[in-house]
Write a structure and sequence with these properties.
Strand 7 and strand 8 form a beta hairpin. The chain contains one helix and twelve strands; from the N terminus they run ββββββαββββββ. The chain has about 190 residues and is mainly beta. Strands 4, 5, 6, 7, 8, 9, 10, 11 and 12 form a nine-stranded antiparallel beta sheet that branches.
Length: about 190
């Protein structure tokens, strides 16, 4: 059940457990709630721990999706972590009901952890609505889509030309600048 709490939305599970926002999500980006008593929703949370090597550690990725029942409209979708792929075309279409294209906005050379160097290109996205809507990189943006009005925060990058410097220890790859949050704020 998705309902309002003092500091934001709360998902209460049938077994009595709760998932509550702690203030990390701006109020304007909280998923809407239809009923004053709460809405029946389906929530899916996934966490993956990836071990890079026994002595150099690893990283964790998380994803949370809240829908209007199984296969229903996406009310909230979030994915975060250190090394993430961008959303697939199918995920973008499922959330917004429209496709999106990536537009490069910035490229630079960087030095990462464990003596690696790489090139990073950052992107904004253009949602294929009429008219088209730009979702700037790493900036909360409201978009009107066929599936409703969403507040979106989309950070997107691609890293290429990895090189390890001589005489350096092995370690994890550089963290990506990729993450995504979309909250349906109006149907």
């Amino acid at each position: 059940m998705l309902h309002s709490g003092a500091s934001g939305p709360i998902v209460t599970f049938d077994g009595g457990g709760e998932l509550a926002w702690t203030g990390d999500l701006p109020r304007e980006a909280q998923p809407y709630i239809k009923s004053t008593t709460g809405d029946r929703v389906q929530a899916d949370y996934q966490e993956h721990e990836i071990v890079v090597c026994p002595f150099c550690g690893g990283y964790t990725t998380q994803a949370l999706e809240i829908r209007d029942g199984e296969g229903g409209k996406v009310r909230f979708h979030e994915q975060s972590g250190v090394v993430l792929p961008n959303l697939s075309d199918a995920e973008v279409l499922d959330i917004f009901g429209a496709s999106a294209s990536m537009v490069a906005i910035c490229s630079f050379h960087a030095v990462g952890p464990s003596c690696t160097t790489f090139d990073r290109t950052e992107y904004e996205h253009v949602l294929a609505t009429t008219p088209a809507q730009t979702i700037p990189n790493a900036s909360w943006t409201a978009v009107n889509s066929p599936n409703g009005t969403y507040q979106v925060f989309w950070v997107s990058s691609v890293e290429t030309n990895f090189q390890s410097l001589p005489n350096c220890a092995d370690g994890p790859a550089p963290a990506t600048d990729t993450g995504f949050v979309a909250a349906l704020t109006a149907p």
